[in-house]
Write a sequence for this structure.
């Protein structure tokens, strides 16, 4: 079926409508480019056509961007020379958009037909790059619409002309928030920024576009006229020079040098501003190809776009009927329960929020009210929407109110006995078909399920805090958890617009299993005399959003003590307590982290984090001889990555896609790498074995090489070669 269609009215205005079949929002692929190109040719060649409107057949949106799977197709088309395939493919796209931009004009800028982009709503990525090539952009006044170029967020940059056109149109300074930060604006803000030209009432969109097309407008782009000066100047203009000095510092400060796309984008703009426009497009295509050939960008695209989308669409969902949640009971109105109630109500689900005391339940509901009030102040929501959401939440102490719930999410104190008592009380109040989910970060699901007479309907749902901000939800199957319970959890997570991963029951499940060793490794190094600043900066320079010491402060040191004591009680002599001395001492000193304004870092009276606490060195002196930066980084990375491999090896993880996506969204594992398994594939399994053997010899058995990693190294393959399609890890 066609993605683009064209109809010409009696006044000679041809309207090209983009409507990708089977998609809620338009996405561009190779076939779509070919169809658009053919229709542009047809319109330009038809003497009866005076001008063109390019719009969308989707309500409330123009386009969501590019189907990034076409990058793989471009690479494959070039055989042994994938860079050539990518470059040629990108330049072919530039040719189509340049054809739209020139619109039949001759070398003297005479002739041509006006082409207007009429955007009914959201226009992202290629959905904005195409309009930027048009002569006029009109957008409907749709406050929910997002207009921008977010490619930098998935490890690439706008490479279909968007980088060059926007920087030449707005100047480097004006374009930088949209290009380097992926900033998205609503239509009015996009107009104020100079990205689009007009904002009109939705019902007037096509009429205004037609009016502009028939007004005999000037259509020559400024950069196609002699003497055009880019706003803010070129890199050799004093103002332009200062802009690029600042931009370079900002990019390196924000990315720590590990994200190739940002540097490539800046290089593309810098070099492109010194040459004619068509040459600038070719420079952009070369840098874009360079980024696409970088294994980091390929891994980010795979994890943050392709695999994330697959998981959100139910890649590992059991084949059972739809399990959409209509009414959810949330047990426990603390911060976690309150957040779960909020996101559920926002998704249109009826919520019963229960706590032991009415005051506590009301406080939990008030959390949603405060959150929504902030949204109103920031114009993210409306008073009417606030009332709708709050009306869906019933705060009570009465378990009878749970009647009719098809899902329970229990979020009470992390204690087996407490959870068991609550489980029995809840199950006595709900129907036999209700699925019971426990929100826990450490307690075994199989053990907790013993409180239920129907363990096949018992499952773990591990939310990350704060619930409303964190995108990952970890779903944990107990030994007897059934397919319906898994499907219910997955469908619920999709309803609340989070990304799910499904893992099997084991100590700490997946996310905490990997992040706790990272924290402990950082604390071990403090005890060893490694400079704390070296530990923290080594983590950040390898792409971790927080160093292990700062992360400990954020999650609280007393929580670390609690986990350490519980783990030691469960593991006995097998427990390694090397890091305990540091955190136990910190807790005894009252330095419990950010919440106490005192931890590994110092804080002011308002809770603002300052420098690392200098008193740490009095108890754990810094050694005269410090390790190499790379050694510290390898210790911090492998502490996490080896646990991920073991989780796959043991069948806790059943899909490495979930391992990679979960690591990035759950605890921020070096996003540039695409996740722990992608990082191992970039590094190479053979090199990984060499490094783990050296770490084991120097630092102990916690770095011992998993058999699965050795096996992949011996085969000369990679994790994604073997498990990339979601193959069950148990096949290992």
């Amino acid at each position: 079926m066609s993605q683009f269609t064209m109809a010409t009215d009696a006044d000679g205005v041809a309207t090209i409508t983009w409507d990708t079949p089977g998609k809620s929002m338009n996405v561009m692929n190779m076939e779509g480019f070919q169809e658009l190109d053919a229709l542009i040719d047809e319109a330009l060649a038809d003497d009866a056509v005076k001008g063109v409107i390019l719009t969308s057949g989707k309500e409330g949106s123009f386009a969501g961007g590019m189907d990034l799977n076409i990058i793989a197709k471009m690479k494959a088309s070039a055989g042994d020379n994938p860079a050539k395939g990518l470059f040629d493919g990108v330049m072919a796209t530039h040719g189509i958009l340049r054809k739209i931009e020139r619109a039949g004009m001759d070398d003297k800028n005479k002739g041509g037909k006006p082409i207007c982009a009429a955007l009914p709503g959201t226009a992202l990525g290629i959905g904005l790059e195409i309009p930027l090539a048009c002569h006029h952009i009109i957008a409907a006044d749709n406050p929910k619409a997002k207009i921008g170029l977010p490619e930098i967020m998935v490890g690439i940059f706008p490479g279909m002309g968007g980088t060059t056109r926007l920087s030449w149109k707005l100047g480097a300074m004006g374009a930088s928030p949209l290009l380097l930060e992926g900033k998205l604006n609503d239509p009015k803000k996009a107009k104020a920024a100079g990205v689009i030209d007009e904002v009109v009432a939705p019902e007037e969109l096509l009429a205004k576009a037609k009016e502009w097309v028939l007004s005999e407008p000037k259509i020559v782009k400024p950069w196609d006229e002699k003497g055009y000066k880019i706003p803010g100047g070129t890199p050799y203009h004093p103002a332009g020079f200062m802009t690029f000095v600042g931009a370079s510092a900002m990019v390196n400060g924000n990315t720590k040098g590990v994200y190739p796309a940002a540097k490539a984008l800046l290089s593309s703009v810098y070099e492109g501003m010194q040459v004619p426009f068509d040459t600038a497009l070719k420079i952009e295509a070369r840098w874009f190809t360079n980024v696409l050939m970088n294994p980091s960008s390929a891994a980010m695209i795979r994890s943050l776009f392709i695999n994330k989308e697959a998981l959100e669409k139910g890649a590992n969902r059991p084949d059972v009927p739809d399990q959409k949640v209509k009414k959810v009971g949330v047990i426990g109105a603390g911060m976690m329960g309150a957040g779960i109630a909020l996101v559920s109500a926002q998704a249109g689900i009826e919520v019963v929020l229960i706590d032991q005391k009415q005051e506590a339940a009301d406080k939990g509901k008030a959390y949603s009210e405060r959150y929504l009030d902030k949204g109103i102040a920031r114009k993210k929501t409306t008073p009417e929407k606030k009332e709708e959401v709050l009306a869906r939440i019933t705060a009570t102490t009465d378990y009878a109110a749970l009647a009719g719930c098809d899902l329970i999410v229990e979020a009470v104190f992390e204690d087996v006995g407490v959870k068991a008592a609550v489980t029995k009380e809840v199950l006595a109040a709900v129907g036999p078909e209700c699925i019971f989910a426990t929100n826990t970060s450490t307690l075994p699901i199989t053990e907790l399920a013993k409180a239920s007479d129907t363990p096949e309907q018992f499952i773990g749902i591990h939310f990350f805090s704060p619930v409303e901000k964190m995108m990952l939800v970890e779903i944990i199957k107990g030994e007897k958890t059934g397919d319906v319970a898994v499907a219910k959890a997955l469908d619920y997570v999709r309803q609340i617009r989070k990304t799910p991963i499904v893992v099997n029951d084991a100590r700490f499940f997946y996310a905490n299993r990997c992040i706790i060793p990272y924290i402990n490794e950082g604390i071990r190094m403090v005890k060893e005399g490694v400079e704390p600043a070296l530990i923290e900066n080594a983590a950040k320079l390898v792409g971790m959003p927080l160093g292990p010491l700062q992360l400990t402060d954020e999650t609280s040191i007393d929580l670390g003590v609690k986990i350490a004591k519980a783990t030691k009680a469960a593991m006995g002599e097998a427990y390694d307590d090397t890091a305990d001395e540091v955190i136990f001492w910190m807790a005894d000193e009252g330095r419990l982290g950010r919440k106490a304004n005192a931890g590994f870092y110092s804080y002011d009276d308002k809770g603002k984090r300052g420098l690392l606490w200098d008193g740490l060195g009095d108890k754990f002196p810094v050694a005269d001889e410090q390790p190499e930066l790379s050694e510290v980084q390898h210790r911090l990375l492998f502490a996490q990555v080896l646990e991920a491999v073991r989780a796959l090896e043991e069948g806790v993880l059943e899909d490495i896609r979930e391992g990679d996506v979960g690591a990035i969204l759950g605890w921020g594992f070096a996003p540039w790498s695409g996740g722990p398994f992608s990082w191992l594939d970039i590094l190479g399994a053979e090199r990984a074995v060499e490094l783990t053997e050296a770490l084991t010899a120097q630092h102990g058995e916690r770095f011992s090489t998993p058999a699965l990693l050795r096996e992949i190294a011996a085969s000369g393959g990679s994790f994604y070669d073997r498990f990339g399609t979601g193959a069950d890890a148990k096949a290992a």
Summary: Residues 727-732 have pLDDT under 50 and may be disordered. The two ends are 42 Å apart (CA to CA). Residues 591 and 599 are 4 Å apart (CA to CA).
